[in-house]
């Protein structure tokens, strides 16, 4: 187990922002309002979407009204991860209010209440981890301002004579109670304290405890409003149809408006939203606009529309993509600071390839493997949609399930020219996101339709469009070579990943050490690997690629942890003990030991079962998983248990963390077993869930979670670990390693069952 | 050719007019009756997000024309309980089941239908074939064990 000192060393590595007085701004208005800036890291920081916070920026705020209502307005998005509740839980601790009385409100970017705001990007497992200390300090600052206002009323400035509990300040010499509501307005006129004292961890009432989520009651009675549920007066419905071939554009005239429909609107790729073959200005879709979803959808399906076939369509095939990846290992150009670095470009990410190869050549025993991972779609259940109410020159209201409201704001500003003060982005609940809702292609289409028809409009991508026109987890081929000396020490490790650049497809500069989204999980490995080399080579993907729950981490952890397992086998060692022997960092060792204990690794699996193990670190958290399988056949495998150990430094809501890890396991399992998109002559082939299967309730393993205990007293501004993506990356290699144990065969190509077709549901129909 | 008919939804009669008589029940509920708790997920009977109860039987409302349900008793998530206190709803809250929540209307209707047909605990599980991307299955199982 890590000692407190080891923890402290580890946690400071990733600090990027410390809370200070200048992070809080008192805002004029009713009651006490504190504005503050929430961070969006790490994916946003890496992608350079947002600059560093300015001390005039506000994207979240706390209000205590003179009616005593505590409202927390949050700029992040709720996509199932429960961060609204987590933030309110943290706030309640130092504000000394009842958690259940805090009202959480979805923030909008760029309000008039304060200096121009910026929403929190909701990705990178970042919302709770990045904003923990901001939230706590905001609660403490507000509390002290309220107490100061009470002191002024009482006339005794000795802070020691006041206690606070449950929104009530008590002046102890006379046992006089003053409610927050009474002093909220006066408190607003006081300075924001520089270093408000925080509640000691030993006195926590909420942090570290499982509390109920605030959004769940609305999600059991149909009242939660997702994007697709938005209804506006006089609203019309638009249904999109893209060119079935990537790179195809509208061929000939726009089809006439079908009977009963309102319009047919061609939509083009707007600057900043196109990926891969999608270049700005190309008309790659049409939207049919009508009076309701169903009639409009049918009209869209039957629309006599013709698309061009791009000249390279015959090269847009799975076999070609794989051949390009294979060739890239041997035919590439080293990165040059002066460019142009056209794919395939070789990036030296870490180490020295010549030294690594020499060490492997001289090794007593060696492995060499290629791992092949396909393009994987997002399978978020709520189809992409966006509702726009645009009044030219006056206002634009956008109702959208988005992970990045500030990107929506910037896009609408770019497309309409309206100042930000006249643009209102309303973030709805997200029916899953998984990274797809970071993008704004569908928002740009909705806005184009709204401009064309002059009415409030909801644009919907039918299910098929979501799978066929996705921005996929990149296809990847990974080559791992490694060698052992005669004592079974690892003496050389050479790792090369070929995959498309996600940031490159978004126009971000990719420097000498490559795209973080592609290399994460292949660098700074914790093992003693001897002479090592990590390289990344760009794949010239014409297919759009994008962020995906744990994207590069899931690709690289599969390859790394599969190879480590193979080294263990080569050494004749137990996979758990072999890893333990290669590790030095206490937190890595801590989660590995914890998962071994939890799974009873040493005693081993039940008769007929097989175990596999894998670990990784991401977003300042450390995670280890053991997978228990049985009944392996050519077409099926039973996944019985997944044991998960997580070290996130400080767990705010253990029950919610457990839920997120279950979700990560499900996501990883879906991808491992079934996840892939296939392409024939530029057209994606798998349009719906039957050929993008997911596990069902009877196939879901039992997930058992253990959390490394919270520190007795956390260190101010110490970096917490993220959770949202952490369950995903170890699942595939742990399962592959169990599969090897069961069958003697390594899983080198994903998914395991690419041809499985999920059956339809029973449906008796009308009586 | 438009057609007009009356549906009984959550105990109330609603007269609707559709342009296309093939319009599935799902879209009549969502777009014409503004009962948006029932969700569109796949449109092809794979996901179950659109599940409602018709005469207490699970129906995938995206699959059959609304008009074919005239004279039958349709219950949606909004009609499960006026106070959100159906046993399945209470079990879902007690076990903190939903994450994104998008599939949960359908999951709850499956559980409620099974319960209404006299099934309890593990006997409800065969009725739970809807998909959940968030991986809430384990908590759904915990919830139905209490029913």
Summarize the helices and strands and which ones pair or pack.
The complex is a heterodimer of chains A (767) and B (147).
Chain A: H1 4-12, E1 24-26, E2 32-36, H2 43-47, E3 60-64, E4 70-74, H3 83-95, E5 103-106, H4 127-154, E6 162-165, E7 168-171, E8 176-179, H5 180-187, E9 236-242, E10 263-268, E11 283-290, H6 293-301, H7 318-328, E12 333-334, E13 345-351, H8 353-361, E14 365-373, E15 385-391, E16 395-400, H9 405-416, E17 423-427, H10 441-453, E18 457-460, H11 463-468, E19 476-484, E20 490-499, H12 502-505, H13 516-519, E21 531-538, H14 551-570, H15 575-582, H16 586-599, E22 610-618, E23 621-630, E24 638-647, H17 654-673, E25 679-680, E26 683-684, E27 702-707, H18 731-743
Chain B: E1 3-9, E2 12-18, H1 25-32, E3 51-54, E4 57-60, E5 73-75, H2 87-94, H3 104-116, H4 137-145
Parallel strand pairs in B: 1-5
Antiparallel strand pairs in B: 1-2, 3-4, 3-5
Helix pairs in contact in B: 2-3, 2-4
**Considering DSSP H and I runs of 4 or more, what fraction of the residues of chain B is helical?**
25-40%
Distance N to C terminus of chain B:
46 Å
So, the CATH homologous superfamily of the largest domain in chain A?
Aldehyde oxidase/xanthine dehydrogenase, molybdopterin binding domain
Number of domains of chain B: 2
Give the end-to-end Cα distance of chain A, rounded to a whole number of Å: 62 Å
Alpha-beta content class of chain A? alpha+beta
What order do the helices and strands of chain B follow? EEHEEEHHH
Helix content of chain A: 25-40%
Mean pLDDT of chain A: 91
Largest sheet of chain A: 7 strands, mixed
The main sheet of chain B comes to:
5 strands, mixed
CATH topology of the largest domain in chain B: Ubiquitin-like (UB roll)
CATH class annotation of the largest domain in chain B? Alpha Beta
Using only C-alpha atoms, the radius of gyration of chain A works out to 27 Å
- Overall geometric form of chain B: globular
Cα shape of chain A? globular
CATH architecture of the largest domain in chain A: 2-Layer Sandwich
């Amino acid at each position: 187990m890590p000692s407190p000192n080891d923890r402290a060393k580890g946690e400071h590595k990733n600090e990027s922002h410390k809370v200070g007085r200048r992070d809080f701004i008192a805002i004029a208005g009713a009651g006490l309002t504190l504005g503050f800036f929430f961070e969006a890291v790490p994916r946003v920081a890496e992608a350079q979407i947002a600059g560093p916070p300015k001390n005039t920026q506000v994207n979240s705020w706390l209000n205590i009204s003179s009616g005593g209502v505590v409202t927390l307005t949050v700029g992040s998005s709720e996509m199932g991860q429960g961060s609204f509740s987590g933030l309110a839980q943290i706030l309640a601790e130092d504000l000394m209010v009842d958690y259940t009385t805090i009202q959480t409100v979805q923030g909008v970017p760029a309000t008039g209440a304060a200096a121009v705001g910026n929403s929190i990007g909701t990705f990178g497992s970042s919302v709770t981890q990045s904003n923990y200390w901001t939230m706590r300090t905001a609660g403490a600052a507000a509390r002290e301002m309220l107490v100061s206002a009470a002191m002024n009323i009482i006339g005794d400035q000795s802070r020691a004579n006041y206690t606070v509990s449950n929104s009530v300040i008590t002046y102890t010499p006379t046992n006089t109670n003053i409610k927050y509501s009474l002093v909220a307005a006066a408190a607003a006129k006081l300075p924001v304290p520089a270093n408000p004292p925080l509640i000691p961890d030993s006195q926590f009432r909420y942090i570290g405890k499982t509390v109920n989520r605030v959004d769940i009651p609305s999600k059991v009675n149909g009242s939660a409003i997702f994007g697709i549920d938005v209804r506006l007066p006089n609203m019309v419905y638009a249904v999109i149809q893209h060119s079935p071939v990537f790179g195809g554009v509208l061929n000939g005239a726009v089809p006439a408006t079908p009977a009963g429909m309102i319009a047919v609107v061609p939509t083009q790729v707007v600057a900043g939203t196109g990926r891969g073959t999608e270049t700005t200005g190309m008309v790659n879709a049409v939207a049919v606009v009508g009076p309701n979803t169903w009639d409009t959808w049918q009209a869209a399906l039957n629309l006599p529309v013709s698309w061009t076939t791009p000249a390279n369509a015959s090269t847009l095939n799975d076999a070609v993509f794989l051949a390009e990846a294979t060739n890239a290992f041997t035919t590439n150009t080293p990165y040059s600071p002066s460019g142009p670095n056209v794919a395939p470009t070789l990036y030296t990410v870490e180490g020295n390839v010549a030294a690594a190869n020499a060490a492997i050549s001289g090794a007593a025993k060696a492995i060499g493997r290629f791992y092949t991972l396909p393009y994987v779609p997002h399978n978020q259940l709520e189809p992409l949609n966006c509702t726009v109410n645009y009044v030219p020159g006056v206002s634009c209201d956008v109702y959208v399930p988005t992970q990045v409201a500030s990107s929506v704001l910037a896009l609408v500003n770019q497309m309409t020219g309206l100042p930000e003060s006249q643009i209102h982005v309303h973030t709805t609940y997200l029916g899953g996101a998984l990274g797809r809702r970071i993008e704004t292609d569908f928002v740009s289409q909705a806005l184009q339709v709204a401009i064309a028809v002059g009415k409030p409009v909801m644009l919907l991508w039918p299910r098929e469009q979501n799978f066929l026109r996705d921005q996929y987890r990149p296809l990847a081929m990974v080559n791992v070579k490694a060698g052992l000396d005669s004592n079974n020490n690892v003496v050389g490790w050479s790792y090369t990943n070929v995959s498309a650049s996600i940031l490159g497809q978004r126009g971000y500069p990719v420097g000498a050490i490559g795209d973080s989204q592609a290399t994460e999980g292949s660098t700074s490995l914790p093992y003693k690997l001897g002479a090592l080399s990590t390289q990344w080579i760009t794949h010239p993907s014409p297919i759009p690629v994008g962020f995906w729950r744990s994207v590069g981490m899931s690709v690289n952890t599969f390859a790394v942890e599969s190879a480590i397992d193979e080294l263990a086998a080569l050494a004749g060692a137990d996979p758990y003990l072999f890893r333990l022997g290669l590790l030095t960092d206490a937190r890595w060792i801590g989660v590995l030991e914890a998962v071994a204990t939890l799974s009873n690794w040493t005693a081993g699996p039940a008769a007929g079962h097989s175990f596999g193990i894998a670990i990784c670190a991401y977003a300042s958290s450390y995670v280890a998983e053991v997978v228990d399988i049985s009944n392996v056949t050519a077409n099926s495998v039973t996944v019985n248990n997944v044991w998960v150990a997580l070290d996130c430094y400080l767990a705010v809501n253990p029950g919610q963390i457990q839920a997120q890890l279950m979700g990560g396991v499900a996501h990883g399992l879906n991808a491992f077993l079934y996840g892939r998109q296939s392409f024939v002559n530029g057209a994606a082939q798998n349009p719906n869930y039957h050929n993008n299967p997911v596990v069902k309730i009877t196939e879901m393993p039992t997930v058992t979670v253990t959390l490394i205990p919270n520190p007795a007293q956390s260190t101010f501004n110490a970096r917490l670990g993220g959770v949202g993506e952490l369950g995903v990356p170890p699942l595939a290699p742990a399962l592959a390693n169990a599969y090897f144990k069961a069958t003697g065969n390594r899983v080198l190509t994903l998914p395991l069952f690419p041809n499985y077709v999920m059956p339809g549901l029973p449906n008796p129909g009308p009586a | 050719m438009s057609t007009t008919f009356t549906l009984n939804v959550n105990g109330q009669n609603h007269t609707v007019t559709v342009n296309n008589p093939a319009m599935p029940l799902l879209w009549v509920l969502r777009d014409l009756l503004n009962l948006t708790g029932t969700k569109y997920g796949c449109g092809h009977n794979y996901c179950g997000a659109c599940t409602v109860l018709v005469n207490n039987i699970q129906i995938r409302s995206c699959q059959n024309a609304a008009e074919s349900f005239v004279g039958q008793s349709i219950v949606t998530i909004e009609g499960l309980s006026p106070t959100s206190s159906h046993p399945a709803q209470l079990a879902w809250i007690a076990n903190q089941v939903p994450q994104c929540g998008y599939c949960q209307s359908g999951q709850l209707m499956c559980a409620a239908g099974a319960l209404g047909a006299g099934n309890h605990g593990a006997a409800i599980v065969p009725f739970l074939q809807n998909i959940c991307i968030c991986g809430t299955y384990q908590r759904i199982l915990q919830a139905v064990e209490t029913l």
